[in-house]
Amino acid sequence: MSDTRRRVKVYTLNEDRQWDDRGTGHVSSTYVERLKGMALLVRAESDGSLLLESKISPNTAYQKQQDTLIVWSEAENYDLALSFQEKAGCDEIWEKICQVQGKDPAVEITQELIDESEEERFEEMPETSHLVDLPPCELNKLEEIADLVTSVLSSPIRREKLALALMNEGYIKKLLQLFQVCEDLENTEGLHHLYEIIRGVLFLNKAALFEVMFSDDCIMDVVGCLEYDPSLVQPKKHREFLTKTAKFKEVIPITDSELRQKIHQTYRVQYIQDIILPTPSVFEENFLSTLTSFIFFNKVEIVSMLQEDEKFLSEVFAQLTDEATDDDKRRELVNFFKEFCAFSQTLQPQNRDAFFKTLANLGILPALEIVMGMDDLQVRAAATDIFSYLVEFSPSMVREFVMQEAQQSDDDILLINVVIEQMICDADPELGGAVQLLGLLRTLIDPENMLAPTNKTEKTEFLSFFYKYCMQVLTAPLLANTALEKTGKDAVVGSNKISAVCPDNFQTAQLLALILELLTFCVEHHTYHIKNYIMNKDLLRRVLVLMNSKHTFLALCALRFMRRIIGLKDEFYNRYIIKGNLFEPVINALLDNGTRYNLLNSAIIELFEFIKVEDIKLLTAHIIDNFYKTLESIEYVQTFKGLNTRYEQEKDRQNQRLNSVPSILRNNRYRRDARVLEDDEEMWFNEDDEEEGEAVVPPVEKSKTDDDFSGNYGKFIEAKKAVKESEDKENLPKRTSSGSLKFTFSHSAGAANGTNSTNSKSAAAPTSPASTNSSSSKTANSPAPVMTKQAGLVGLVDYPDDEEEDEEEEASPEKRPVLDHKGLGKKMSVCFEFNGATVPQLTE
Question: Low complexity compositional bias: what residue ranges (predicted)?
Fold first, then answer.
């Protein structure tokens, strides 16, 4: 149905007495067999679905408001409204409704819903009593009129009769003329009666009366009547405020007289509702529902009329971004857009989409980038409010803009960095603006709203952009306030290893807490981006400096950050924590807290309790090995004893497993110390490192327990098949400063085969047949441990029964040499590392 006359918006009134949009469609009045009567049907213009099916009941009260609205109630708390695009369409449907109910289309309301007792009394009334008899509009009758208006408010049918009487006789304008007379005569009693009369007329809740009372020639007199509240000693001066104090500012001259009148009317009616009228009681809440609707639909009209005036908006944007515009003018322009965006919240979703897209096309985001960097606090605050409307409406639109800006702009000024800087530089002692901006940043970097099917790469692209261009700006205050000075290589509990300046300024502490809150959010919702950043910047160590802060809330924020990292149970994070000995600041904070039973104490205990309950073996072993002597005295909780118990149980299980492995691994032949490489060996391993490149895995402390050996041993056995494929190439890397893999061959001083440190290189490289045959008599019947590195794995593989293979190795120069570990009284030990962790040496 393409007839624009029947184009409507469907609204329902929610529990908060606000109108919710249900969609746009076309209305018709049709006989519905299922409902046994005429009904109003609204079908969506987008897909033809049924938005509304409402039977026109003979007892339902329909109201016609502002020539384009029809409002009615279908149940006790279910109000509906149809907003027509054209007055002609509204008139057509109104005639259909009046025809079904047998009413004259000239009326503004068909009837009122009444209870049974009221209906019975109404049926008993004679035909001549359809209207209330109003007293003559004279000064000496004001008290009688006031009593009449007050008495009808409790009766729905009498309220309706009074409203019709006031409309038919033009009574409102006569009353307002009396008000002017009373003011001239300073008739205080008459003015008090007029206050009661006008207040009662407003509570009649009739749109037709509002149209008269809020017209240009009447509204100021209505406000005047409401100044003379009998309960006040002196009358208020509302008219003086509206005419002198509250000035209408036009940032750009509005030429449309209808739009100007609508803006004035809406402001004044809003003032009456919010300022002049008292807060309605529970029993009066519904008395002003029509007044709320009147304001709501006025705002819809204002936004629509402004949006359609493209020249007006273009001129506003041109002046907003013009460098020649003075600060006062720019402040007014920004405040105009703030109010404009606030009014847009009354639009239905489709129209709101069009509204914000119009603003985006006109350049609202580049304009905000300019004004958010201004020194004027009011301008910045208003710009922040506008930015919040845009982010809440469409985070994707903002993300798309900032990424395009990074590609197209030559300077380093990016909108999102401007937002971060405003958050950091907030002058408010309570950081109210910073908290608001933090919420907007969280919305922008939240992966949950980056799942739009139209742009599946949005998450990856934007997060890569954010960590490349913006993260360093966000963390700059944190890094600046946690400068480290290392005074020793090894950590000892209780040592003053790190000296750092913790911020004692309360406002700085608050800011760091906000930054940590956002970083904690990143740990929870981002994956490798934040992980790489933490590893590269050693960020957790810097954050834990704040555990020394005198502000407990800041120490708790730092602890929460670490707790989220440990909560991921990520192996990389765990190794990073162990390598940096990052439990030391936490345990020192626990000890410094002493016996105080507070939130900090509970949060630290909960951290260790989580490690115990989740049985994170790597962290458990590290804590027990390094800190248990310090913590075992804490007995008011069983957390640390429980950690030790888990540690001992795991150790026992590993020992049982080791007892079941082949004979070559039995009899406690494991020692954890590694001999220092001699100069030639060191040089050879360094050369090998250059070929291999550095490992990605961060280095880990060598104090790994035997618990890890069994797990690595399983991986060594899995690599058995890969040995034959890699026999033609042997690379034996040493551990570099970045934690790459290494292993060392250390020989006894009395080796009988004449091998010394100068030829250790030959032990890992293909040799000549002669050199191989020199020990063939002993190696033919010996199992040969073979060292291999395949895809980042160093493996020790034993072939106890492969005698024929050993013979082939003797004959072929292509095979690697067999390392004899039984003959000629030689003792050999093999020490190597897997992913930065030392594996115990094997000696024979």
Answer: 751-785
